[in-house]
Specification:
By secondary structure, the chain is of the alpha/beta class. The protein has one domain: Rossmann fold (3-Layer(aba) Sandwich), CATH 3.40.50.2300. Helix content is about 40%, strand content about 30%. It has five helices and eight strands. The protein has a five-stranded parallel beta sheet with strand order 2-1-3-4-5, with helices on both faces. The chain has a three-stranded antiparallel beta sheet with strand order 6-7-8. Helix 1 links the parallel strand 1 and strand 2. Helix 3 runs parallel beside helix 4. The protein is globular.
Amino acid sequence: MQIARTLVVDDDAGFRRRVRQFLASEPSIEVIGEAADGQEAILKARELKPDVVLMDVRMPGTNGVDATRLINDEMPRIKVIVLSLYDVDEYRQAATASGASAYVPKKSLVDELVPTIQRIWRIRRSMTFSRRESDGEMRIGRQGHQHSAHRGQPR
Protein backbone atom coordinates (compact mmCIF):
# COMPACT_ATOMS: atom_id res chain seq x y z
CA MET A 1 0.00 0.00 0.00
CA GLN A 2 1.27 3.45 -0.91
CA ILE A 3 1.33 5.91 1.98
CA ALA A 4 0.64 9.65 1.65
CA ARG A 5 3.57 11.37 3.38
CA THR A 6 2.03 14.43 5.00
CA LEU A 7 3.31 17.71 6.47
CA VAL A 8 1.04 19.51 8.98
CA VAL A 9 1.31 23.32 9.08
CA ASP A 10 -0.47 25.40 11.73
CA ASP A 11 0.64 28.06 14.21
CA ASP A 12 -1.23 26.23 17.00
CA ALA A 13 1.00 23.43 18.35
CA GLY A 14 -1.99 21.80 20.06
CA PHE A 15 -3.88 21.63 16.77
CA ARG A 16 -0.86 20.10 15.01
CA ARG A 17 -0.61 17.48 17.78
CA ARG A 18 -4.34 16.65 17.52
CA VAL A 19 -4.13 16.28 13.73
CA ARG A 20 -1.07 14.03 14.10
CA GLN A 21 -2.92 11.87 16.65
CA PHE A 22 -6.06 11.75 14.51
CA LEU A 23 -4.14 10.66 11.41
CA ALA A 24 -2.02 8.10 13.33
CA SER A 25 -4.84 5.56 13.12
CA GLU A 26 -5.03 5.87 9.32
CA PRO A 27 -2.62 3.37 7.69
CA SER A 28 -2.61 5.18 4.33
CA ILE A 29 -1.34 8.48 5.82
CA GLU A 30 1.95 9.19 7.59
CA VAL A 31 2.68 12.55 9.21
CA ILE A 32 6.37 13.14 8.44
CA GLY A 33 6.71 16.63 9.88
CA GLU A 34 5.19 19.79 11.25
CA ALA A 35 5.68 23.52 10.71
CA ALA A 36 4.42 26.52 12.68
CA ASP A 37 4.18 29.08 9.86
CA GLY A 38 4.31 29.47 6.11
CA GLN A 39 8.03 30.14 5.87
CA GLU A 40 8.84 27.03 7.90
CA ALA A 41 6.37 25.09 5.73
CA ILE A 42 8.29 26.04 2.59
CA LEU A 43 11.60 24.99 4.16
CA LYS A 44 10.16 21.70 5.45
CA ALA A 45 8.55 20.97 2.08
CA ARG A 46 11.93 21.39 0.39
CA GLU A 47 13.64 19.20 2.98
CA LEU A 48 11.05 16.44 3.54
CA LYS A 49 9.39 16.38 0.10
CA PRO A 50 5.94 15.38 1.38
CA ASP A 51 3.18 14.19 -0.91
CA VAL A 52 0.55 16.32 0.85
CA VAL A 53 0.72 19.49 2.96
CA LEU A 54 -2.11 20.37 5.34
CA MET A 55 -1.84 24.18 5.46
CA ASP A 56 -3.62 26.54 7.86
CA VAL A 57 -4.79 29.62 5.98
CA ARG A 58 -4.13 32.25 8.71
CA MET A 59 -0.73 32.29 10.39
CA PRO A 60 1.69 35.01 11.44
CA GLY A 61 4.47 35.86 9.01
CA THR A 62 4.02 34.06 5.72
CA ASN A 63 0.35 33.06 5.65
CA GLY A 64 -0.99 29.80 4.27
CA VAL A 65 -2.19 31.25 0.97
CA ASP A 66 1.23 32.75 0.16
CA ALA A 67 3.05 29.60 1.31
CA THR A 68 0.72 27.45 -0.82
CA ARG A 69 1.46 29.59 -3.87
CA LEU A 70 5.22 29.32 -3.32
CA ILE A 71 5.11 25.56 -2.74
CA ASN A 72 2.88 25.07 -5.77
CA ASP A 73 5.19 27.17 -7.97
CA GLU A 74 8.41 25.55 -6.79
CA MET A 75 7.26 21.98 -6.04
CA PRO A 76 4.09 21.32 -8.06
CA ARG A 77 4.04 17.58 -7.33
CA ILE A 78 3.28 18.41 -3.67
CA LYS A 79 -0.45 18.78 -3.15
CA VAL A 80 -1.68 21.33 -0.61
CA ILE A 81 -4.93 21.06 1.31
CA VAL A 82 -5.79 24.38 2.94
CA LEU A 83 -7.45 24.24 6.35
CA SER A 84 -9.33 27.08 7.99
CA LEU A 85 -11.28 27.77 11.11
CA TYR A 86 -13.45 30.00 8.93
CA ASP A 87 -15.60 28.48 6.19
CA VAL A 88 -15.87 31.63 4.11
CA ASP A 89 -15.80 32.06 0.33
CA GLU A 90 -12.99 34.63 0.51
CA TYR A 91 -10.57 32.09 2.02
CA ARG A 92 -11.78 29.28 -0.23
CA GLN A 93 -11.26 31.43 -3.35
CA ALA A 94 -7.82 32.60 -2.17
CA ALA A 95 -6.80 28.99 -1.51
CA THR A 96 -7.96 27.91 -4.97
CA ALA A 97 -6.20 30.84 -6.64
CA SER A 98 -2.96 29.94 -4.84
CA GLY A 99 -3.02 26.43 -6.30
CA ALA A 100 -4.45 24.47 -3.37
CA SER A 101 -5.85 21.07 -4.30
CA ALA A 102 -8.62 21.28 -1.70
CA TYR A 103 -10.06 23.41 1.10
CA VAL A 104 -11.34 21.83 4.32
CA PRO A 105 -12.96 23.82 7.14
CA LYS A 106 -11.52 22.79 10.50
CA LYS A 107 -15.03 22.15 11.83
CA SER A 108 -15.32 19.38 9.20
CA LEU A 109 -11.93 17.74 9.77
CA VAL A 110 -13.23 14.57 11.42
CA ASP A 111 -15.52 13.82 8.48
CA GLU A 112 -13.62 15.31 5.54
CA LEU A 113 -9.86 15.28 6.18
CA VAL A 114 -8.99 11.61 5.61
CA PRO A 115 -11.20 11.21 2.50
CA THR A 116 -9.79 14.46 1.08
CA ILE A 117 -6.17 13.39 1.64
CA GLN A 118 -6.90 9.99 0.09
CA ARG A 119 -8.64 11.55 -2.93
CA ILE A 120 -5.82 14.05 -3.54
CA TRP A 121 -3.19 11.34 -3.04
CA ARG A 122 -4.95 8.97 -5.47
CA ILE A 123 -5.12 11.69 -8.12
CA ARG A 124 -1.46 12.63 -7.59
CA ARG A 125 -0.32 9.00 -7.76
CA SER A 126 -2.33 8.29 -10.88
CA MET A 127 -0.75 11.11 -12.84
CA THR A 128 2.76 10.75 -14.19
CA PHE A 129 4.74 13.63 -15.51
CA SER A 130 7.97 13.59 -17.39
CA ARG A 131 9.53 16.20 -19.55
CA ARG A 132 12.27 15.98 -22.09
CA GLU A 133 13.99 19.35 -22.03
CA SER A 134 15.64 18.76 -25.39
CA ASP A 135 12.48 18.94 -27.48
CA GLY A 136 9.95 20.48 -25.07
CA GLU A 137 7.82 17.34 -25.09
CA MET A 138 5.54 16.80 -22.11
CA ARG A 139 4.20 13.38 -21.25
CA ILE A 140 1.06 13.33 -19.17
CA GLY A 141 -1.03 10.28 -18.50
CA ARG A 142 -2.25 7.66 -16.11
CA GLN A 143 0.27 5.22 -14.65
CA GLY A 144 1.21 2.69 -17.26
CA HIS A 145 -0.68 4.62 -19.97
CA GLN A 146 1.57 7.49 -20.95
CA HIS A 147 0.96 9.47 -24.06
CA SER A 148 2.62 12.46 -25.62
CA ALA A 149 1.36 15.96 -25.84
CA HIS A 150 3.66 18.29 -27.72
CA ARG A 151 3.64 21.96 -27.05
CA GLY A 152 3.95 24.26 -30.00
CA GLN A 153 3.50 22.83 -33.45
CA PRO A 154 2.01 19.37 -33.90
CA ARG A 155 4.37 16.63 -35.05
